[in-house]
Amino acid sequence: PYSEFTFDDYIAPSLLQIDQNHIELNSASKMFCMTGFRCGWAVGHEDIIKGIRKVKSQIDSGSPRFIQKAVIKGLNEYTSEKKPKIVKEIIETYEKRRDALMKGLNEIGWKTEKPKATFYVWSHIPEGETNSMDFVKKLIDVGVVLTPGAGFGKFGEGFVRFALTQPINKIKEALERIEKIIN
């Protein structure tokens, strides 16, 4: 679902570039801001898609028609390889938020890698912190909520995830609060 949310002219790779034994799943949730509508699609080799169609037809009756029509309208905005205006506008919003967060983190001494895609920033916890859960609890005490990397499994420990879902003024406010904890 995040393949369209790329920044700085980065193009996300596709499994379909590898060979025909893969499928690629996508949804309208992120691309068209339709979270909760539960409408998606699969792209891949015709035989695999036929099998998925058989299974899917026995699981449920599909999304309501009005949702399908909205998704079709969104997909029809793709008239070339370029992203349509509505998608570009959404991406620009997240890119500005990402840039504000990255600038602020650097200014308070928390070095982290600038992501090429998605509306999340995944970062190592600051030096001196021992684990993601304890660090996140400290942030909650000052009114900032991040997702501890440990919630994503053992390889996530030592990381936190920022969501770029708040406006820039809220991101800056969060950065001021974070600075109190790490400095």
Automatic annotation (TrEMBL):
One MF annotation (Gene Ontology) recorded for this entry: pyridoxal phosphate binding
UniProt keywords, alphabetically: Aminotransferase, Transferase
A Pfam short name: Aminotran_1_2
Domain Aminotransferase class I/classII large: 2-178
Required cofactor(s): pyridoxal 5'-phosphate
Gene3D superfamilies registered for this protein in UniProt: Aspartate Aminotransferase, domain 1, Type I PLP-dependent aspartate aminotransferase-like (Major domain)
Protein name: Aminotransferase class I/classII large domain-containing protein
Source organism: marine sediment metagenome
